[in-house]
Design brief:
about 525 residues, Phosphorylase Kinase, domain 1, 17 helices, 17 strands, elongated, Ser/Thr_kinase_AS, transferase, Protein kinase domain-containing protein, kinase
Amino acid sequence: MISYSHYYNIIFFLLFYTSHSPPLFQNCPHFLSFQTVLFFLFFSCTVPMESAAATRPLGSSNHTFRNPHNNSHSAASSSSSRHHHGSLSPTSVLVIAVSAISVVVVLLVVVAIVLLRKLRADHVSRAASFKESNGSISSSINHVVVHRNGSHRFVPRSSSTATTINFNSSPDVGGGCLSTSNMGHKTPTRHRRGVVQVFTYRELETATGNFNAGNVIGNGGYGVVYRGILSDGTVAAIKMLHREGKHSERAFRIEVDLLSRLHSTYLVELLGYCADQHHRLLIFEFMPNGTLQQHLHHKQYQPLNWGTRLRIALDCARALEFLHEHAVPAVIHRDFKCSNILLDHNFRAKVSDFGLAKTGSDKINGQISTRVLGTTGYLAPEYASTGKLTTKSDVYSYGVVLLQLLTGRIPVDIKRPPGEHVLVSWALPRLTNREQVAGMVDPALEGQYSKKDLVQVAAIAAMCVQPEADYRPLMTDVVQSLIPLVKNLSSVSSSARFQNQISPRYIRIPKSWEGSMMSKKNDVSHRALFLC
């Protein structure tokens, strides 16, 4: 049988050990609770021992009473009494056993907690090391990135007013994000808006028919775009980036960074990406009506009517307004052009291709010093000559697109007569002359437009392509100037519009505008265009 003295010694040993224990126990948040249990058990053992000593019969060694007539009986009784009080009853043994098991369980829990805390600390340390070398995602944008097996990668919340971007980081899209071990069968998940999925290369091969040439819908400097059908039946545009050079990798990371955070009706939606070994692919929503470039400059595409052109102009203005005013820091697209404006089934425009985008995080006096990248004919003069990039650089590019909507011409056309090679240089002196503006209109419109609308849109374009950035408007001003024109497309009948009736909501054009708008003295008149 287990005696109280043995149990007492065990508890005393544990108390002594934990009091002089290594940091394994002393650093544990449950260390005091563990010692409390031991003290409780210590006193629960001590009290019964003292009680047993106090209630010992008089025939014991401390209280001897000799009966000469019953020595043998007394001896037997004393022996029985010593046997009874020197051992534990079954109930006491059960209590001691339960207590001992409790101590062991508490000890195991303490050890497990310490080990888990250590493993967690190691994991955090490895994650911090990875972020320093490959970048990390840190933002409060409303988006969730989900692996195809359903495991979530990011679950942040959205803001109704501004979008915060950490542009010096990137998602886990480097090598090893996906491997061949991830290419097994996966349960299809129907795409949800704002959810960016990670695809394997094998999945995208299946979606595009092994990247069949018959599924090619676009080809640019940075890659080839295929039409594909994902495993859940979603039709998507799958962009395969070229492998050579570091720029393709950087462009890939930038697009995933931005489009997984920025969600707007006027930006093309990123459905997912693939970073499987050396393959880099982006999966976008499919835009069935192609690009604005195709409809303006390719004869095999249906020409756009005047109302559609106005709506496209407003959609694009709202896209840039979102990037400039609602993203924190502001995002500069840097490659805004007709081929990066996609049209959905209703010919509503969405801006795409953010591979060259920059944010205002590295601004110096409101400007970003950067290597000149972009497309000839769309570059703002100050950016092309000095590399100084601001949101007004995008405004200039928008003005060039607006001129293309008006004239149907490309930005640079060496096939044109001398003096007409560069669209902006040819158009700017004519934009403020009411008579000359009519002669600039795209012949594809066949005269089906409002002359009053034409003059006002021409004035907006002239403001946007001013050589000096300070004279260009904000995109918010451009949006507010175009809204009344687009609203009148539905509120005014077709016959009334083609009789050149002016809605009182139209923007006022100063009659004194003659010739160039580049002088500073006309700046007040320029601002009045966007404030009335």
